Amino acid sequence: MINAGAYQPVPGGVTAARGFLAGGAAAGLKKNGQLDLALIYSSTPARAAGVYTTNLVQAAPLVLTRRRVAAGTARAVIINAGNANACTGARGLSDAAAMAGAAAAALDIEEQQVLVASTGVIGVPLPVEKIAAAVPALAASLSPENHSRAARAIMTTDLVAKEYAVQVALANRTITIGGMAKGSGMIHPNMATMLCFITTDANIGSQALQAALKQAVDDSFNMITVDGDTSTNDMVLALANGQAANPEIMPDTDDFRLFYGGLLEVCSCLAKMIARDGEGATRLIEVTVTGAPTVQDARLAARAVAGSNLFKAAVFGQDANWGRILCAVGYSGANFRPDRVDIYIGDVQVAGNGGALDFAEERAAAMLKQDPVTVRVDLKCGAHRATAWGCDLTYDYVRINGSYRT
């Protein structure tokens, strides 16, 4: 038994929580027989919540899923890689519904209880017949042990699968929160290419789950960037089936705060995995802004630095060009006094009160070789802070994206 308030990492990813099964299959959407179709299933109805891209161009599966999450409950999520089913018109919506229908038939549940997500190339019709043919065997393979197959099946240009789970001790029960995510390019979420699926056996209402998920996304996935592109398919979904049998978690209670802490732990770890796995990246960048007048100012400044292509390139080249950091803070929209800003790369202070300092270039370069590369910007204008994550910008990013479709 873990102590109340503690967050204990556990294996299992998206199936770590009671009552969840998962699987992955090769439906022929990607080349070379790779896994490209995943299914998550709850043995009992689950409360559902979602956070979605703010891109005005939204993929068909996202449109369909958003409507179904609004109803409050779901039992399954089917996800394909290799095809985004975006910008595909009325056919795209029909194909997304057909995906859900195939999963519902195989699982013997109502179609409205199946959520859909897709990732891959935009503007190409979804070969839904391949998905329908693969679903029966996929559904038959569902198990707690196949969480890693599901995590691999949703990858596109990702180099590694991304899974994480924790147990959270509440006052009366221990609950589990787990998840899986994909993302490597087109990462600059504004909700929220990136997808994330969270499962929990906690007993929590849809509205409380939605509130917790929205806040956790703001503090994690909305604080990462790889290349400044916000996808048409970005979404984070959460399912809570209540099988931990804890008293229902209500807003503004100690249990809610404990649940939120565990949810944030899972989301933050998955978010950092995405940033670290950025296309062509060699190092994770962690930018912490302190001394901001408001949390929003801190977030704006941190995201701007983490997303600066000039600074990302400087990290790759191990060039302690602190002017690019201050410049990014300046155009971020944050409120601050430029003549007060201190900047640190690792433990080396490279700027003070908005101006140059005499620092050891070799020591600063050594800090830029570490993984993660840590940057702290102290605005000295308030008491608020925020952290954002990104990655360096390398030659390989251009190589990967110069031939993504072909």
TrEMBL record:
Predominant location category: cytoplasm
InterPro entries linked: Arg_biosynth_ArgJ, ArgJ-like_dom_sf, ArgJ_beta_C
Ion transport among keywords: no
Main enzyme class: transferase
Alphabetized Pfam families for the sequence: ArgJ
One of the record's GO cellular component terms: cytoplasm
GO BP term, example: ornithine biosynthetic process
Pathway: Amino-acid biosynthesis; L-arginine biosynthesis; L-ornithine and N-acetyl-L-glutamate from L-glutamate and N(2)-acetyl-L-ornithine (cyclic): step 1/1; Amino-acid biosynthesis; L-arginine biosynthesis; N(2)-acetyl-L-ornithine from L-glutamate: step 1/4
Record-annotated site: Cleavage: A192, T193
EC number, as in UniProt: 2.3.1.35, 2.3.1.1
Keyword Amino-acid biosynthesis on entry: yes
Function: Catalyzes two activities which are involved in the cyclic version of arginine biosynthesis: the synthesis of N-acetylglutamate from glutamate and acetyl-CoA as the acetyl donor, and of ornithine by transacetylation between N(2)-acetylornithine and glutamate.
Family: Belongs to the ArgJ family.
NCBIfam families for this protein: ArgJ, PRK05388.1
Protein name per UniProt: Arginine biosynthesis bifunctional protein ArgJ
Gene: argJ
